[in-house]
Amino acid sequence: MGSIWSLFAPSLLQQPWREVSEKDKRNLEFVKSYQPENKQVKHLRILLHGPVGAGKSSFINSVNTVLRGRPAGGAETDAISGSSYTSKTFKFHKSPGAKYSFVFNDIMGLEKDFDGGINVNDVKLALRGHVKEGYKFNTGQELREGDDGYNSFPTLEDKVHVLVCVVPADAVSRLSDQIVKKIRNIRLAASELGIPHLAILTRVDEACPEVKKDTSNIYKSKYLKEKVDRFHQMLGLPLNCIFLLKNYSHEIESNDKMNAAILCALKQMVTYGEDYLNDL
């Protein structure tokens, strides 16, 4: 669809609709120096959710790559669906004995079948901090109070401070009604708790040939802008809460253009989470 559409109109805007510069190091400095003002927490907690194979774990690895300045792993990628997924908190190494002051939680992906993928109610429990570290999510069994993996007395540290939906840019138009309904349901639960909600659209290089040639074209691509507008209409998320980026996959060197888009999204996650903690 993208390549056919580009035959009839210029595929790139003259000016980017969002300014993201690989020469601007302020976002990196911000996330490296970040410390929560709220002394009840040591780490800002960011929960990633979305369809199976959307790139949630790859995003965690990409953030790790940006912070280390070289390709880095740590999170198992979620390209293959499964019947279980263990709850893990991913912390980022800063220096000997020190970690960054934000963490990610990656959970089992959403699937279109009613009884497939993670149960939406389990995600809601995770938002409230009721899911213990190491709990194994199961498609056929919802976590309940009294279960071994249920945290009955969550602290503010256990609760989610930012919710991030991860969806491939090239799949926005193909999201099933069931998946969209689940994402909306989770977003509504976060809104009721006052938790900020953002989204990242991954695989931008697969969606747009111009971005595949040059990653700095991310926010110049008319096709990707169209996908952001579509996602905005589907979920009601403000446009300034939707970000485009390419995750690290086959690259063996750090890439400043890729890093700029990743840091743009990461800074906003941390900023929104900090606002949430300070407004409690």
How is this structure best described in words?
The structure is a single chain. The chain is an alpha/beta fold. It has one domain (2-279): Rossmann fold. The protein contains 9 helices and 10 strands. Strand 4 and strand 5 form a beta hairpin. It is globular, with a radius of gyration of 18 Å. Residues 1-8 have low confidence and may be disordered.
Task: Briefly summarize what is shown.
The chain is an alpha/beta fold and 280 residues long. It contains nine helices and ten strands.
Tell me what portion of residues adopts beta-strand conformation: 5-15%
Total DSSP helices: 9
Q: From N to C, what is the helix and strand string?
A: HHEHEEEEEHEEHEHHHEH
How would you describe the oligomerization state of the chains in this entry?
single chain
Neighbour order of strands in the largest sheet: 3-6-1-8-9-10
Quick one: CATH class?
Alpha Beta
Low-pLDDT runs? 1-8
Query: What would CATH call the architecture?
Result: 3-Layer(aba) Sandwich
| CATH fourth-tier homologous superfamily | P-loop containing nucleotide triphosphate hydrolases
Keywords:
Rossmann fold, 280 residues, single chain, 6-stranded mixed β-sheet, 9 helices, two-stranded antiparallel sheet, alpha/beta
List the helices and strands and how they pair.
Layout: H1 2-5, H2 26-33, E1 44-49, H3 56-68, E2 84-86, E3 88-90, E4 93-95, E5 98-99, E6 102-106, H4 120-127, E7 136-138, E8 162-168, H5 177-192, E9 197-202, H6 204-207, H7 209-213, H8 222-235, E10 242-244, H9 256-279
Parallel strand pairs: 1-6, 1-8, 8-9, 9-10
Antiparallel strand pairs: 2-7, 3-6, 4-5
